[in-house]
Amino acid sequence: MIFIDACKGKATKRTPIWLMRQAGRYLPQYRELRASVGDFLALCKDSQKAAQATLQPISELNVDAAIIFSDILVLPLEMGMSLSFKPGIGPVFSEPINDLKALDKLSADKAIENLNYVYDALKITREQLSPDKALIGFCGAPWTLATYMVEGSGSKNYANVKKMLYSNPQLLHSMLRKITNALKGYISAQINAGADAIQIFDSWAGALEMNAYLEFAWSYISELCDYIRKNHPNTAIIVFPKGVGAFIENLQAGYDVLGISWDMPLKIAKDKMGAKYVLQGNLEPCRLYDTMAIEDGVDEILNIMRGKRHIFNLGHGILPDIPVKNARYLIDYVREKSAKIIAKAK
């Protein structure tokens, strides 16, 4: 698999590419599939249709890896929290965690057991996926999951979880510990079900100052990386801590690939981290609205990396109104251009 080879730092004939949120609303067939089920969570819990959604961008775009269709919040859902997705708002937990009594009601073991629909979707996808295509499992990072669990939904200032962090750090650490323990079992089960790689999404990494992030977020990501490396040594590990460019050099751990968000200059990331880790990213997603903007962005990224230790991706998820033909154009352009650069460098 070219994707796994690249994750492990091996030389490839071209730069592999996949897109975050590649199974989603920009695809007409995805919208039809979701409408047939009723709502987002119902689609996540229908293993057959979740696998179908996972495979759609493989058929439509011929990307080098499929990422299982699911959501990071199914873990706290199955730990015992009540989750809904509200139009115009997004995910909402009806009873946020604000004390130890509420936290004690949540079960890591229950979550691992109840997430069988994710594992079944992975098995179905792996059976139908071409052997040369990688299958990516994923999870939310402990800090990002805790943020949703305390705030109850998305937040602009993260006031509730930051209040907990500074006024009751023991409670937040207890929550992060329970989440991390659940994630270990969840990740292992995904790998056993067929995932070739695991991506850890820390979507709200940029909400914390450096010292707080290293203590309350990165330490738990590092623990997860060590766990995967010890128990599943052949699995590629990708971390995506969004918005931490100011202290990126402090993010050392046992992972293979570091995802770079679009707001971080790739050259700086390469200079600071590229010698030790494979970099993934980081095209600005809005460039996909225009083919010339795609070419300019791709050229800049490929010229910075020159075929070295790189997986092409967007610097965040693909937007729902991106034309499918532009996504195809991006895939083809990256393949053609990167193959020429790598061949010339030999």
From TrEMBL:
The keyword Lyase applies. Substrate binds at residues 21-25, 71, 148, 203, 316. InterPro entries: UROD/MetE-like_sf (IPR038071), Uroporphyrinogen_deCO2ase_HemE (IPR006361), Uroporphyrinogen_deCOase (IPR000257). The keyword Hydrolase does not apply. Its EC number is 4.1.1.37. One of its GO terms (biological process) is protoporphyrinogen IX biosynthetic process from glutamate. GO terms for cellular component: cytosol. Residues 16-25, 136-152 form the Uroporphyrinogen decarboxylase (URO-D) domain. It comes from the Bacteria. It is found in: Cytoplasm. Pathway: Porphyrin-containing compound metabolism; protoporphyrin-IX biosynthesis; coproporphyrinogen-III from 5-aminolevulinate: step 4/4. One of its GO terms (molecular function) is uroporphyrinogen decarboxylase activity. Gene3D superfamilies: 3.20.20.210. The record marks 71 as: Transition state stabilizer. Keywords: Cytoplasm, Decarboxylase, Lyase, Porphyrin biosynthesis. It catalyses: uroporphyrinogen III + 4 H(+) = coproporphyrinogen III + 4 CO2. Homodimer. Catalyzes the decarboxylation of four acetate groups of uroporphyrinogen-III to yield coproporphyrinogen-III. Belongs to the uroporphyrinogen decarboxylase family. This is Uroporphyrinogen decarboxylase. It comes from Candidatus Campylobacter infans. The gene is hemE.
